[in-house]
Design brief:
35 strands; Nucleoporin_Nup160; single chain; about 15% strand; 5-stranded mixed beta sheet; nucleus; alpha+beta; transport; TPR_NUP160_M; structural constituent of nuclear pore; elongated; 4-stranded antiparallel beta sheet; Methylamine Dehydrogenase, Chain H; 48 helices
């Protein structure tokens, strides 16, 4: 792999997520150090370690870094490729400040971190990341899934394991001093941790900890190098030159498979100590190698080894600081037999003097320096060239307070500014809030982890501050606003100050596997990434040379142009330095309102010329002089424009996909890193375009170009510069946008499905704020860029280097975002992720100048408007977008299915209509359907679909008349039926019967009726308005439909008979009445309806006789009736039956009304006292009146025995208005009612009902009323006599018999129905002679049985009267016979005939 020759640039990823720390406190039990701890001043330091394996996604771009602050160690694990959970742990070594000598070593199973403190050494073991990913090859892995960090299971128990730490005692000669330097190393071969600790008193303590509780502690001494006879001189020499022997740096290094301890003294001696025997085996004077610097006193020195070299062949770097300058010596230890010597590889001299940290790679040196302004600079140098190149630091923006022009609430302005993505980490805002509260004497505890809670806490704190200031006095509005603004400025100042403090650099960590580095700061960190050629040229123009660009195809293919391009960039850099921030800001603001860049830059230069004419002329002159150095200015500008258009590493589409590459920069940190890097590149590219445009204007103003060059630049380059300026501004604008919250609704998938989009879920943890670019990079954009990256032809190890992975990845992502292309991926993602505001602004910015995908963008913007409930805007845009369905890839892919001509437009409109339907925009769907109908041909099969769509949405909007006309216009009969069914259903549900009646159905009339009837039959009969509407509709149709109207009413009544409620009965009665009345208007021969026959009815047997002479038997058929014909008389009967049931139900709801037979109904009516209705039912159905009169007689008898006032309840239901007015006694009224009914319902000359009533009275042992006996005597005295006699009523029977005989003899004949007495000329009549004889015999028997002879008198009188009657009857009979015989001339004898 070729060396990266360009510069590096600092980029700070967004670190807004709040870190949740695992806190572990260790008490090592240090002995004797507590009294001296206050004298120890440990400088805050930071460093880190990156995993060695760069071929696997879970260790590539993954690193550990730590910060040391007194006795606290913070360990953080980060990865750019996978998200980690539980990745922060904080160790607190109580009363044991940590020495900067921490090291990390990987083994197959563990990651071991060695930590030395002033009184103890610790070996922290954590599982290797591979332990969490053993199943990835089998199960696969997903980039968005988080993996546990190696620190996720860190525990106090493990850290306190005695096998993992050792508390040491100071050497005896060190007395009360504590070690100030330390180094650590893990020997994987022996499985032991090696620590070396150096004391200010020159002692060295070697500690070996093997993890099994075995510890070897050795004090290193240097006497072995001196002969014994010189030992005394050695002590004196040490005493005299104690400062020169002071150890300033230590290192543990594996050389030739043996572990050595290296110490560097202030005197410049590099000593090699054997870790086996603790003896010093070599001393090398480094100062002899420093040239002129060797004469100066060594002030500071640091010894480090290369990070990416093999352990046995690892070069060393020694930093030496002298009063006259600083040097880095790159050395390589070489073991020759028993001797160790060093080989000088390189020496680099630095102009800086205050070193913070440095790191060595085999081919590069990194250094971090503190400047006199308390800032820092970073330099890197290639060991081949030995030339220092500065690393471009990121400028901390927003030093000025947010500008509030008085139009907005300060709270809104400052909160939006504070929580803008990437501006302030949450922990900075949280700490600043604590500082602000302390300054405002607000002492509530602050520990917030979410953006929403933090915003609320800030607002409450500032409001509390404001209220405390004005609590005791009235305040004017302007004073309140001024103080509010001051409070917000004060809080913002706290954030800035703390943020500046958090940016103080503590260390530099190099990631050799990625050819990048991490700048570790007090509370944050930033990456040092490789730059692209354009960045290097614009930011490091003083350090660029031609050979740097030989590895970049676009420049290497025309190497003769590189010098001209470099000269052109010198001009661009010069111009950028001359332009102030106001000029740059105003240029961007004008572009934001869609002004042409050329117009804006011309106006700004005109204003600049007016303001500083002389300075402007000097600038123009300087620019002209520099440009004249270009041999071909046109080609140079054209080459720069080519670099602006395309700069990515081409991916071969035929290459296989590298699965590991799909994880590149997919973690939240990696996405933020990429987004921040892309933001920087977009800013640079926009500045280049702006400055190129200025150069064009200056060249045109000075007119010092040759005409052909002028014309080429003016006609070719300048239009493209304007075009690229606008495109890059759009890119820059997008990189600064915050992402909007979006929680997709349940129907989001359904709404986006027609255009083949899937909703993006961007719910953010703890309400964290991400930029739009981060969100896009973490979803669609990042996935597509990784797919392209995965096809680059690099091996896994080489591809891990950022200039081979990060820069191409950013380039691919920039290509996806680039507006001047056919892809609409960004616009699609903006729709699917709910970023509707940004999409609207994005399309607005492109619409004035960009012709690429204008129809597709209009379509997607319309979808966005739809999802934002701006339907009419969407309608206009959908119609505009239709122009591009044949020309733009998105429209062809998503809208067409190989259709051409008008059919394609129809299909497009149908899809748009579907979108409107999903968003309930029915009026817009109708308009779109009208648009489609305006171009559709009459024979197009989709014509019916469009009319159906119109109908459906008109109906939903309650445009019933328009809906009816739409269905009538539909050429498809089946669709017309379906639409009519929907219309009828809707209007019936809405009770819009008048609207239904207002339509003229024409040939759809039968269908309309069928639909209504089907609906009526499918609806419960009790609350069924459809039958009523059908009845009304058939009546309005005229006399020809009256029978159908009657049939409808009868059907409803028939169905209601199955429901036993009062309302149903009432409705049933009305239906029967309506059916009867309308049938009476029909011709009698058609006055009938049909109904289903009884399913339980037996089948009829029909015999079909065989033909004469046939040998076949007669055929027998069984036929079951399916329907019955119902005429008006049957309906009348059913009406009476229903009225009776209704009356019964109204009278007493407790009586069951599920009666189906007249007999049952009469029984219930009798029990309720509704005798008049019961008699009507009996009359209608030809039933006997016996039960009615029995019941009524019983009521009379019971009320006679005991009157019940409640009897009036049923009495009034029997039409008492025809009875006499005297109603003082309820029993009299009842008897009168019985008398009235007997007179009304007893047939002439019949006593059937009289007999029933009298029997009931006799059975109840009551006396027969006089009116009853009177009526009975007239109608049938013989029967009453017989009834009384048989019932044992002898006294009453005597009276009847006595009066009956007298009436026959002519005494009171009218009382017994005789018109004339017994006489020869009277009509023949007969008396019950036998019954009277039996009665007389009964009286005789009663007298014979009783000594008192109780009926002696009655017997005598009746017997004498009976004998008299017999004598008279005999005489009269003889006389009548003689008279008749004489009249006919016949002779006969009737002397012996008796009349009975």
């Amino acid at each position: 792999m070729s060396e990266f020759t360009l510069s590096y640039r600092e980029v700070t990823p967004d670190q807004a997520l709040y870190e949740k720390w695992i806190e572990i406190t260790l008490h090592t039990g240090s002995r004797g150090t507590q009294s001296t701890l206050q004298d120890i001043k440990i400088t805050e330091r930071a460093n880190g370690y990156s995993y060695l394996d760069s071929t696997r996604h879970y260790t590539r771009n993954r690193f550990i870094y730590w910060r040391i602050s007194s006795d606290t160690l913070e360990l953080i694990e980060q990865s750019l490729d996978i998200n980690l959970t539980g990745n922060t742990v904080r160790y607190r070594f109580m009363d044991s400040p940590i020495i900067d000598g921490i090291s990390v070593q990987e083994t197959e199973e563990n990651v071991i971190i060695l930590v030395p403190t002033v009184c103890s050494v610790h070996m922290l073991r954590f599982p290797h990341p591979s332990n969490y990913h053993k199943q990835d090859d089998l199960l696969g892995s997903h980039p968005n899934l988080a993996a546990p960090s190696i620190f996720s299971k860190a525990s106090t128990l493990e850290a306190r394991n005695p096998n993992n730490f050792y508390v040491f005692n100071n050497p005896s000669t060190a007395m009360d001093q504590l070690p100030n330097l330390a180094s650590s190393f893990y020997d994987t071969e022996n499985g032991e941790a090696i620590f070396i600790l150096s004391y200010p008193s020159l002692e060295l303590l070697l500690i070996k900890l093997n993890g099994h509780g075995q510890t070897i502690c050795t004090e290193l001494k240097g006497e072995s190098l001196m002969p014994r006879f010189l030992s005394g001189l050695t002590e004196k020499f040490r005493a005299k030159n104690n400062d020169a022997g002071q150890i300033v740096s230590t290192l543990i290094q594996l050389i030739d498979y043996e572990v050595y301890i290296l110490t560097l003294t202030r005197g410049g001696h590099l000593k090699f100590w054997s870790s086996k025997n603790g003896q010093c085996v070599a001393v090398i004077d480094i100062l002899t190698e420093t040239g002129d610097f060797g004469r100066d006193r060594l002030q500071h020195a640091v010894l480090k080894k290369a990070l990416d070299a093999q352990e046995n062949d690892c070069p060393l770097a020694i930093f030496m600081s002298f009063p006259s300058g600083c040097q880095f010596h790159i050395l390589k230890p070489i073991v020759s037999g028993q001797q160790i010597r060093i080989k000088r590889l390189n020496t680099l001299t630095s102009l800086e003097s205050n070193l913070i940290d440095f790191s060595l790679q085999c081919d590069r040196l990194w250094s971090l320096w503190r400047t006199s302004e308390d800032d820092c600079v970073i330099h890197t140098a290639s060991l081949k060239s030995g030339t220092w190149t500065p690393i471009i630091r990121e400028v901390v923006n927003d030093i000025q307070n947010p500008v509030n022009r008085g139009e907005c609430d300060p709270r809104q302005v400052y909160l939006q500014h504070l929580f803008h993505p990437g501006r302030f980490p949450l922990h900075v805002i949280n700490k600043s809030l604590g500082i602000y509260k302390k300054s405002s004497y607000i002492t509530s505890e602050i520990n917030l982890t979410s953006v929403a809670a933090m915003k609320q806490a800030i607002s409450l704190a500032i409001e509390s501050d404001i209220q405390s200031c004005f609590s005791d006095s009235e305040v004017m509005d302007h004073e309140y606003l001024e103080y509010t603004e001051w409070c917000w400025q004060k809080f913002y100042s706290c954030c800035l100050q703390y943020h500046q403090t958090s940016l103080r650099p503590l260390g530099l960590m190099v990631i050799p596997q990625s050819s990048g580095a991490v700048l570790l700061k007090k509370a944050t960190f930033s990456f040092l990434r490789p730059t692209e050629p354009l960045e290097h040229m614009i930011l490091c123009s003083d350090y660029m040379y031609k050979d740097q660009f030989i590895n970049f195809a676009l420049l290497a293919e025309e190497s003769d142009l590189i010098d001209d391009v470099m000269t052109l960039f010198e001009v661009l850099v010069y111009l950028d330095k001359q332009l102030n921030n106001r000029f740059k800001t105003e240029f961007e603001q004008k572009l934001a309102i869609n002004l042409s860049p050329n117009t804006v830059i011309t106006n700004l230069l005109e204003n600049l010329k007016i303001e500083v004419d002389g300075e402007y002329n000097n600038i123009c002159q300087r620019v002209t002089v520099l440009l004249n150095q270009c041999s071909d200015l046109y080609r140079a500008i054209h080459k720069v424009l080519e670099l602006l258009r395309q700069d990515s590493t081409p991916a071969n589409p035929d290459n296989d996909v590298n699965p590991s590459a799909l994880h590149f920069f997919s973690s939240s940190l990696g996405v933020s890193f990429v987004a921040a890097s892309l933001r920087q590149q977009c800013q640079n590219r926009f500045a280049i375009c702006r400055d190129l445009l200025i150069i064009c204007n200056i060249l045109f103003d000075t007119k010092q170009l040759q005409p052909n060059v002028y014309e080429a630049i003016h006609s070719v380059c300048k239009p493209e510069i304007i075009y690229l300026t606008q495109a890059n501004y759009v890119m820059l604008w997008m990189t600064k946008l915050p992402a909007l919250n979006n929680v997709p609704q349940e129907n989001s998938i359904q709404r986006l499905a027609p255009i083949k989009l899937t909703p993006a879920y961007n719910i953010k943890p703890n309400g964290a704020i991400f930029s739009l670019l981060e969100l896009f990079s973490s979803s669609t954009g990042g996935h597509e860029a990784r797919k392209m990256l995965a096809k680059i032809d690099y091996n896994g190890e080489s591809m891990a280097h950022w200039h081979l992975s990060l820069l191409p990845f950013i380039s691919y992502l920039r290509q996806i975002l680039w507006p001047l292309k056919n892809s609409t991926m960004l616009a699609e993602w903006l729709v699917s992720s709910g970023q509707h505001v940004w999409l609207q602004q994005y399309v607005k910015m492109l619409s004035s100048w960009c012709d690429w995908n204008i129809s597709s963008c209009s379509f997607l913007l319309a979808v966005s408007f739809l999802m934002s409930a701006e339907n009419y805007k969407a309608l206009d845009l959908f119609q505009i977008a239709a122009k591009g369905i044949f020309t733009e890839p998105f429209m062809q892919e998503r809208m067409l299915k190989g259709d051409k001509g008008p059919q394609a437009y129809i299909n497009y409109y149908l899809k748009v209509i579907h979108l409107f339907e999903l968003h309930k925009a029915r009026d817009c769907a109708i308009q779109m359907a009208n648009t489609a109908l305006s171009i559709v041909e009459t024979d197009n099969p989709l014509l019916a679909t469009l009319y159906s769509i119109k109908f459906k949405h008109h109906l939903a909007l309650k445009h019933y008349e328009e809906a009816f006309y739409a269905l009538k216009s539909n050429p498809d009969h089946e669709r017309k039926k379906d639409n009519l069914r929907d219309l009828v259903k809707t209007l019936l549900d809405e009770k819009k019967f008048d609207v239904l009646l207002s339509f003229t159905y024409g040939d759809m009339d039968e269908l309309f009726t069928s639909i209504l009837l089907t609906r009526a039959r499918a609806t419960d009969a009790t609350s069924n308005v459809f039958y009523d509407f059908l009845y009304a509709y058939q009546i309005t149709r005229g006399p020809l439909c009256h029978r159908l109207a009657a049939s409808i009413m009868y059907e409803q009544a028939y169905r209601l008979s199955q429901t036993n409620t009062t309302d149903a009965l009432e409705k049933q009665v009305k239906c029967y009445l309506a059916a009867k009345n309308v049938l009476q208007l029909v011709d009698p021969q058609y006055a009938w309806v049909i109904r289903p026959s009884d399913p339980d009815e037996d089948e009829d047997e029909v015999i079909l006789e065989s033909l004469a002479g046939s040998q076949k038997d007669n055929e027998v058929f069984r036929i079951k009736k399916q329907i019955e014909v119902v005429d008006i008389e049957i309906i009348k009967k059913e009406l009476i039956f229903s009225c009776a049931k209704l009356k019964l139900a109204r009278f007493d709801s407790s009586i069951p009304s599920n009666v189906n037979t007249p007999v049952e109904l009469v029984t219930l009516l009798n029990s309720a006292g509704l005798f008049k209705t019961a008699l009507e039912i009996c009359t209608t159905y030809n039933l006997g009146y016996a039960t009615v009169f029995e019941s009524l007689t019983l009521k009379c008898i019971m009320l006679s025995e005991e009157e019940n006032p409640n009897a009036w309840d049923w009495l009034v239901e029997n039409d008492l208005q025809d009875l006499p007015a005297n109603r003082d006694s309820i029993s009299e009224v009842v008897w009168q009612l019985l008398q009235d009914y007997l007179e009304k319902y007893e047939e002439p000359n019949m006593t059937t009902l009289h007999k029933i009533v009298c029997k009931k009275i006799i059975n109840m042992r009551m006396y027969i009323p006089f009116w009853m006996l009177k009526s009975y005597k007239v109608r049938n005295p013989s029967e009453i006599l017989r009834l009384l006699h048989c019932s044992g009523r002898l006294e009453e029977a005597f009276e009847v018999a006595h009066e009956y005989l007298l009436a026959a003899l002519g005494y009171g004949k009218e009382l017994y129905g005789f018109k004339v007495p017994l006489a020869p000329n009277s009509p023949a009549f007969c008396l019950p002679v036998y019954e009277i004889q039996c009665f007389i015999k009964e009286l005789q028997m009663q007298n014979d049985k009783d000594l008192l002879r109780p009926f002696q008198k009655e017997h005598t009188i009746l017997k004498e009267l009976f004998e008299k009657y017999l004598a008279t009857a005999t005489r009269i009979s003889n006389e009548k016979c003689q008279l008749q015989m004489s009249s006919f001339g016949s002779i006969g004898s009737v002397a012996n005939r008796s009349i009975f």
